[in-house]
Amino acid sequence: MLQKTVKYHQDNHYLLLTPGPLTTSHQVKAVMSRDWCTWDDDYNALVQEIRQELVRLSGAEQLYTATLMQGSGTASVESVIGSVIPKNGKLAVLRNGEYGHRIQRIAETLNIPVVALDSGELQPVDVRDLEELLKKDPDITHVAAVHCETTTGMLNPIQQIGEIAKKYQKVFILDGMSSFGGIPMDLEQLQVDFLISSANKCIQGVPGFGFILSKREALQKTKGWARSLSLDLYDQWNCMEENQGKWRFTSPTHVVRAFAQALSELKAEGGISQRYQRYQQNQQLLVEGMRSLGFECLLDDGLHSPIITSFLSPKHPNFEFKTFYNNLKEKGFVIYPGKVSQADCFRIGNIGDIHPEDILRLIQAIEAVSTWKTETA
Which residues belong to any copy of the Aminotransferase class V domain (predicted)? Predict the structure, then answer.
């Protein structure tokens, strides 16, 4: 059985139309064939180059510093939540999907006082509610929000959130997991103190570590605040600073090398602005093609991100998502199930090494597998 499964995956390559892990280039995959030593000067120099490039992409090189953190993107979120809020701090979370809710759960697990403003899954977070909350509750010290909430594919108004957070002198934490590297942003202009993202998102690397872009001044205040040893953000950053790229504990060397290659490919593509244009074109072609086949979007067009889009499942008695999924997989495309409690839907991402011609092939494949339209109930 195992041999059959392995052969299936070898003979049937597919594109990942998900919010990450995502489809990577052949070159990103190829560089992982070489082994690296975590103590080697060449490897640590590569880590430093990555950190410098990430800071450059932040738009404010003099203010920010980069820290790489082992684990999933959620581990990096937990590193920030558990490291930058002092013992007498309190967190406000703007929530309109699973990933805002996850920030809340992290804070609750770490016994950090937290209040959540929930605007529901189908609306952007409400900045007016945030201002009212900050007026009423002076104990709040930090505000956290998700930029691209991939539960639905919605973009949240981070410019306004940052303005209100700073109006009341709060530290602004931004989950830019599914947006950094794919959507142009200037962190200084957005007034972000800590941004969190992951190697396997819009930079188009592979899973294994996340990264945090921090205002240097804000990070330096947090020494000794961490509630975890392995996820201590300040100590991880300080080790990399003092030891020229050395991680405190064993780093995912192959993943780091793949990420360096992915950063090179981002630059060769023309930077974030060009990648953003490709993602936008992908998403627009996707929506147009799906509508031509009779599918409807979950969100209004003005709320869409260029990252991932939710589509309502057809109201047909013979439509079954698992069958739809498997049939598309056989044709070389893997999509994502829905995560919304209020609607029966599924999601299709268009980030990664995905191009307009891939989206057009996807639409043809969806049309071919939409057999329920011709089946009798």
Answer: 33-311
